[in-house]
Structure formats: C-alpha cells, structure tokens
Amino acid sequence: MEKKTFVTKEKLDEIIQTFPTPFHLYDEKGIRENAKALKEAFSWNKGFKEYFAVKATPNPFLIQILREYGCGCDCSSFTELMLSDAMGVKGEDIMFSSNATPAKEYELADKLGAIINLDDITHIDFLEKTIGRIPETISCRYNPGGLFKISNDIMDNPGDAKYGMTTEQIFEAFQILKEKGAKEFGIHAFLASNTVTNEYYPMLAKVLFEVAVKLQNETGAHIKFINLSGGIGIPYRPEQKANDIKIIGEGVRKVYEEVLVPAGMGDVAIYTELGRFMMGPYGCLVTTAIHEKHTHKEYIGLDACAVNLMRPAMYGAYHHITVMGKENEPCDHKYDITGSLCENNDKFAIDRMLPKIDIGDTIVIHDTGAHGFSMGYNYNGKLKSAEILLKEDGTAQLIRRAETPADYFATFDCFDIGRQLIEESHKIWK
Ligand SMILES: *Cc1c(COP(=O)(O)O)cnc(C)c1O
C-alpha cells in the first residue's frame, strides 16, 4: 500500500506561511471517522466505553473531539488526571491504570471519583492506607506470564513485563477486596503492544473472559467490566495492512457469546484504553530539510530532532517519510535523515530510499499522532514544537504553542540566574 499524507502540498504550504516548521499536525476528519468506527464496532455491547490513553496525545483539543464519541480518559499520572478533570471528564469516565503509583496520585484519582485499576496485590493495602478505604468499584490488572502467541507468532512477552498480578494473586486480590467492601469488579490486561492483526483483541478477550468466569464463580465477586486496554496497532510501514476495527469488534463479540453469555455474564461491559489506534495515523511531524552532507554516507539534516519524535531513536521504529511535492518521483537516493542532537541515534531514517531531497523541501514524517509529541524530551536543551489541528473545514488551529527558552529555564525560577535567563529569553527569542 502506498502511504499518503492526509494533507496536500498546497494546504501545507499555506499552513507553513503562518506556522514555522517543525510542528505536529493533526487531522480532525481522520480522528472523527476512526472514533465513529470504533464506537460502531462495539455497539453490540451495552456498556462499551473507550478510555483514551492520555499519555499517547495529551492535548485537550484532540481529546475533546473523542469525547463527542463517548470516550473517557485513561490516566496514569497526576498531571494526566488534572488534564482530564479540567476537560470536564469526571468520575467513572476516568480510568486510572497506573503502576508503581505514588500516594498523591491515588489521592487525586479517588478525589475525582476515577475507577482505580490496581497493578499489584500489595497496592490493596497501600490504597487503603492512602485513601482510608477501598472504593466500591475496583479493577485489577492481570498478567498471566509466559509468551503471548498468535498461531506460532510471538506477539509479546508478558512474562518479562513489570505490569499486573499473577493468576494466583488476582484470585486472592478479589477475595481480599471483597472482604474489604468492594462491590463491582473489573479486570484489565495489556499483553501485546502495537499488534497489526485482527486476532489480538479476540485472543486477549478469550484469556480475560475465561479468567473472569472463574473469578466470579470462585470468589462470588460481581464483574462489571473487562478492560481490553491498548495494543491495537497501526501500519507504520507501507507493506503492512491496517487492522479492521469492525472485524475486531465482531471477533470479541463471538468470544463474548461463547464464554461470558453461557456463564450468565451477559451484562459485562467491555472497555478499551486505546491510544495509538485512536490517534497514531492522524498526526504527522512537519519538518524542513535544512542541510545536506556528503561524507561516508549521504545525510539530510532536518529542523526537527528526536526531541520532537523519539520512537526511531528509542526503538529503531520505522516512520514513513514523504518529500512533499515529490510523491511521484523515483526513490533513487539513499539517505540517513537526521536531527541535530549530539547523539548518533538521532536519525528519523537510516538508508532510506527517497526522491532527491533539496534544501528547503518540506519533509513529512508519518504516524506521529500517538506517542509522538508526548514522548519528547529536552535533551541538548532543544525545545518542543507546536501542535496544530487541521480542522474539517480546512482551517489550521494552533492547539499548543512551541516551547521557548523561557519554558526551558522555567524550573530555575527560584534562583537569580534562572530569573535572568527567563528575562533574557523574552528579549532575544523570536
Ligand atoms: C500505553 C497504555 C495504553 C495505550 O497503549 P496503545 O499502545 O497506545 O494502544 C493503554 N493502557 C495502558 C495502561 C497503557 O499504559
């Protein structure tokens, strides 16, 4: 499959007139169509809810769009909870799926009435000591261990993951929580990441549904929801085939009818905590080629770096690249496409075949809508970019301004030198 940008060259040229590169651009139309398709795919389940994984794209303008399709927020930190609260996401519309959780985060989650998803059996005592009781609705994160396989393919390695409780522990946890007054239970598991197969969710559902039936039978706990969490992936590579959410929804329905309905559990709600699937394809990083370098290899230097998109440096992840206006030219040049960090892993692509790139070309890096901007950091004192929303009516709206040096120095504001730096930034930064 050819990968196309969701924005035309003409439109992008127009946006760049107002907003200098680099920036992340998001596609309202794509976000809406996908959110609607997810909602429809699970409409067979009365209690279905998607809790958008806020960490993927923590921008209130984007999350507000998802709210229109009934989505809540999946949070795992103090600031993610604050952001959700500020957007008017309240009570059980917040799922708090954290791990190694600080006490003050449990306190805030409880204050907001969020559903708390316990990562470990020892957190029962920790939570009770922190908030003074056990909430009536509570969830536990499950990790069966071993390898997660589909046919003979290893999808991921839960046995090596820090998350969740063992099978033994989750049975004991349900018992203890019930004794301490919990009335409604949930189970959660995240066993494979970025899966590009329609089989992952149905297989995960089978594992969770079977445990749920046993848990309800053996502990007498009422299971209100089963949270399939994140993990539905996107086709980063042109040769990959996108997941079909309708087939995935039907696959989960089939297992639901085979396992839960005969056990008298046809009232269980299905929850999801998708991040990548909701936003990934509907964002891109817009950059400009500012240097070319011919040494032992051919290099193109961009005005963006790993601070703006960390996945290639961190995981060696593939992100497709389009040279705007040269979509139909032959890919007969082999380049390393680099950022400016003093780190040799700051490369958006290595040995990538692309059309000949000239300085000043607009280079679009695809699929940065999730775990893109949000994973960024400030190494080398580089600043994070703006975020812009391409609206359905074709206009572009700034939804986060770019960082300035004053932002970078903000945490020195309790010292003289810091206050000087911040003042100076306001004077010299344009
Ligand atoms: C990161 C995360 C998600 C979202 O994962 P995606 O791969 O973006 O779908 C969901 N739930 C939890 C607990 C997470 O940590």
Automatic annotation (TrEMBL):
Sequence ranges assigned to domain Orn/DAP/Arg decarboxylase 2 N-terminal in this UniProt record: 31-279
Highest rank taxon of the organism: Bacteria
Domain Orn/DAP/Arg decarboxylase 2 C-terminal: 281-369
InterPro entries: Ala_racemase/Decarboxylase_C, DAP_deCOOHase_LysA, De-COase2_C, De-COase2_N, Orn/DAP/Arg_de-COase, PLP-binding_barrel
Signal peptide region: none
Key words, A-Z: Decarboxylase, Lyase, Pyridoxal phosphate
Names of required cofactors: pyridoxal 5'-phosphate
PANTHER family assigned: DIAMINOPIMELATE DECARBOXYLASE (PTHR43727), GROUP IV DECARBOXYLASE (PTHR43727:SF2)
Family statement: Belongs to the Orn/Lys/Arg decarboxylase class-II family.
UniProt-recorded name of the protein: Diaminopimelate decarboxylase
